[in-house]
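Objective 1b of the project was to move from sequence-level analysis to a structural picture of ligand recognition. The entry below was assembled by the postdoctoral researcher (A.K.) and checked by the PI before modelling. It contains the amino acid sequence of the target and the SMILES of the bound compound, zinc ion.
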Amino acid sequence: MVTHFPIAHEDELLGSILARFVERQGIHEDRIACHLLFGSRNIAPAVFFQGHIAALMQQVGHIWKHSLEDIAYRHTLLPIFKPFVTEASFNSLLNEIIYKDKSHVMLKSGCSAGIVAWPVTYKVCPICYHDQITTYGYAIWQRTLQCPGVEACPEHECWLINSEVDIYPERKHKFYGPSDIKINIPTLSLIADKKSVLLSKMVYQLINTAS
Ligand SMILES: [Zn+2]
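Corresponding predicted holo structure:
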């Protein structure tokens, strides 16, 4: 039984929270971590749309007290679709992410159609990254920064850095967090162009105000 669970930050990806849990527990076997978190050894991490939220909350809901919908809205990229699909379609996607896995969401939302270029590595803002390390002792994956097309930090207005941590790694059952970054993240980055900053601010606004 899970007795401790990390405090989730605003705009933190669900996988980032789970990676922090696994690291704190000192679990080195990926499938044991999956079993502890989801009650199944066969659940695979999904960066953008982590599914099986209901199964997760059965294991950790006594500590992490949020509704299933809340988790999907706050810690996955699902809200990005809200303005672009009908209410019925969105509710169907919400249902999929809560009870099934990401492959259904990717398929139903049209993500896999190849129209949108989804990132293949995690992105970080160097200023956010170092601020988080100083303040919390660890960094998090910020979900806005992982959205397709987002290349600037909405807060610091600088270009993001490629962390070189793969979104589709060979270890399919491991939850990767910023502690898996192998490169040195610089402390500063150049100011991004206005269009990129505006886009990142709009995406941040879109996914953090949907409900
Ligand atoms: Zn930043």
